[in-house]
Amino acid sequence: MKKLIAMVIVLGMFLIAQNTYAQCNPKNVMIPFMTIRGNVLCPDGSIPTMVTLDWFKVDGVICADENINWTYPFSGNGTYDLQFWLDNSVDHTLQICVTTECNIGGNTVNVQGGFSADGMTPGDCNAVTDYPLGTSAMLAHIVTPVQLSSFTASAL
Questions:
Q1: Which of 17, 43, 87, 123 sits a CA distance of 20 to 30 A from 51?
Q2: CA angle (63 as vertex; 68, 84 as ends), nearest 5
Q3: What are phi and psi of 61, to 5 degrees?
Q4: Model confidence over 8-43: pLDDT tens digits?
Q5: CB of 44 within 8 A of CB of 104?
Q6: Cα pseudo-dihedral 65, 69, 74, 78, rounded to 10
Q7: For the whole prediction, is pTM greater than 0.85?
C-alpha cells in the first residue's frame, strides 16, 4: 500500500511538472501572459484588409485557440496583438503562420508567412525562432514571400 501511495504521489508530481512546462499553457492568472505585437504591410506598403492567424506553435505544438488572444487590427495602422501563456523559466521555440489579404492593383492577394531568420528573407510558416529561458521581451520578424512585417514581443 505504501508503494502504491508513493507511486501516485510521484506520478502526480510528474504531471504537475509537465503542466508547468507545457508548450502553451491555458489562460491562467498564475502565469503572466506574453505578448507579440507588430505591423503587417502589403507588398505595396499599404495596410492589409485582413490578417488571419493560421496557427501559433510553441515547441512544435499548436496552441489551442482558447489559450491565445489574437487581435487584428489592434490599432488603425495595421498592427496585431497576440497574447499567450508560457512558463519562461525554460527554453522554448516559437513558430507562427499568418495569411494576409491585400488589395494590389484591384486584385485581392492572399500571402502566407512566418518568422524570418534575419528580418529580410521570406519566412516559411514552419520557420522556428528561439524563445530563450527568462525572456520577457524579444524582437522577431515575419516576412512573407512578398512583404516584410516587423514584430516585437514582450511580456506585459
A1: 87
A2: 35
A3: -110, 130
A4: 443 443 333 333 345 788 887 677 788 777 777 776
A5: yes
A6: -40
A7: no
Helix, strand, coil abundance in the chain, percent, nearest 5: 15, 45, 40
What's the total number of domains in the chain? Answer: 1
Query: What are residue 119's phi and psi, to 5 degrees?
Result: 80, 0
How far is it, in rounded angstroms, from Cα 67 to Cα 69?
Answer: 7
Q: What are phi and psi of 28, to 5 degrees?
A: -155, 130
Mapped onto helix, strand or coil, the DSSP state of residue 38 is strand
CB 1 within 8 A of CB 41: no
Retrieve residue 153's grid coordinates.
514581443
Cell matching residue 142: 515575419
Structural domain span for residue 144:
2-155
Length of the chain: 156
Residue 29 in grid coordinates: 492568472
The x, y and z cell numbers of residue 48, run together, are 492589409
Say if CB 69 and CB 108 are below 8 A apart.
no
